[in-house]
Amino acid sequence: MLMDIKKIIIAIDGYSSTGKSSFAKLIAKKYGLTYLDSGAMYRGVTLHAIEKGFITPSAEIDFDALKESLKGLDIHFEVAQDGSSQTYMGPRNIDREIRSLQVANLVSPIATVGFVRDYVNDLLHLFGIAGGIVMDGRDIGTTVYPNADLKIFMTASAEVRAERRFKEMKAKGENPTMAEVLDNIKTRDHIDSTREVSPLTQAPDAIVLDNSYMTFEQQMEWVDEKIKAL
Ligand code: DC
Description:
By secondary structure, this protein is α/β, with parallel strands linked by helices. The chain contains nine helices and eight strands. The chain has helices at residues 20-31, 38-52, 63-70, 101-111, 114-127, 140-144, 158-171, 178-194, 216-228; strands spanning 9-14, 34-37, 75-79, 85-89, 92-93, 133-137, 150-155, 207-210. The strands form two sheets. The chain has a five-stranded parallel β-sheet. A three-stranded antiparallel β-sheet has the order 3-4-5. Helix 2 (38-52) packs across helix 4 and helix 2 (38-52) packs across helix 5 (114-127). The longest helix is centred in the last third of the chain and has 17 residues, at 178-194. The chain is globular, with a radius of gyration of 17 Å. The protein starts with 8 loop residues before the first strand and ends with a helix. 2'-deoxycytidine-5'-monophosphate is lined by residues 16, 38-39, 42-43, 107-108, 111, 137-140, 188, 192.
């Protein structure tokens, strides 16, 4: 490997619930990189909009009020004692709340708003300035870091993804039906890939990883090869 791993930028994009964040965390741990979860930023803005009443349950957005409020909004990451990255809104840890179904249902419309994307992208650039990062999202390899050293585009069947998300939510004490979760995944796929601003698309130089039937070990072997080849 010719690259300085401490300065490397790895961009992981793909559909929701393809295991991007679990994979990114494993890579970060193995190679001593910082993991940055761009989706958590969009979820944080969504939680903020819900709490302030800037978005209704049927996703009507008060654009002016939301835009104004972003000027004073502090969403950032902090590393917890166990080494995990936690999302904060000011002094408040919001890592759990941003994973609720309510936030999941409203995050895609919020993520289609141009000024929200500008707000998040500015922060992501600041966080990643020194390199040594693995960032996951939808437009990291295309918009946020088009010069990333390694771009991975993750995919898996909608049914496999729904099953994963369903188990995750059950483990957290939520009680959705399988149909609700599958519906949420399909709706988000559609909104994420058809929105006008920065849609989910595969960068021409991204390498596709379909992990429908792969274990984490197999995925790590796959990425070790790609990193070695840099
Ligand atoms: O990765 P996630 O499911 O936590 O992302 C939440 C939402 O945020 C997802 O529906 C799409 C959006 N998102 C985005 O538009 N761009 C990113 N870089 C990351 C997430």
